Amino acid sequence: MTSDSRAWHTLSASEALSLAGSSQSGLDETEAGARLAIYGHNRLLETGRSSPLGIFLRQFTNPLIYLLMVAGILSLAIGDRWDAMFIFGVLTTNALISSYQEHKADESARALRELVPQIARVRRGGTAR
Question: How much is the pTM?
């Protein structure tokens, strides 16, 4: 097999089949079994669900966010409560909005995963199944 860096979409069907080590009649059972043993099943990666708190806390793992937190803490340390409240308010609002967007993106990805067929038609030794 070749690496994924190749522009597969630009190849003709016969070129792509040739580079993948296959043909119009498909793989024979022996080759299909060997590839299954090497590469495993062709499945989408399942990830566990993140808790809302985990998603929220993950929004604070950016170096720029750390810098703003330090600025907020320094504002408190020098007695500038209004600036500190503003900075922490912006950080909290950003984290809430980003958490909501990430949650919706996770839901969309999960819904798309359910739409993907779990069974594919293959050609083995010239026979479609």
Answer: 0.60
